[in-house]
Amino acid sequence: MTxxxxxxxPADPPRFMAxxxxxxxxxxxxxxxLANAGFAAAPTIDTLAARSxxxxxxxxxxxxxxxxxxxxxxxxxxxxxxDTSLVEAxxxxxxxxxxxLRRRPVDxxxxxxxxxxxx
Length: 119
Hints:
Blueprint: H1 2-8, H2 16-19, H3 27-36, E1 44-54, H4 57-67, H5 70-76, H6 82-101, E2 106-116
């Protein structure tokens, strides 16, 4: 998705996916951020693993482009033409996913850190 959007918007590509859900994963960075925010206790960080599946590349692109904060970054690219931009971006991401998957199902490992801390 990120590569497809970078090709569509080379001057200022939307980077939400790389920056936030896929870019903020380092446990030591998370712990340091919490300490810098004033938390004295060490956090408990549990990692949960699962599978992410979609019926098609189009469904996956629709979910990412129109169902996450990525939507706002895409819409900001064209102001008044935001709806057109959103459709074009979703189509570009679906095409990129179809190319990357090469007829394989949309199915991949996902994981999340669940962070708990007491102030």
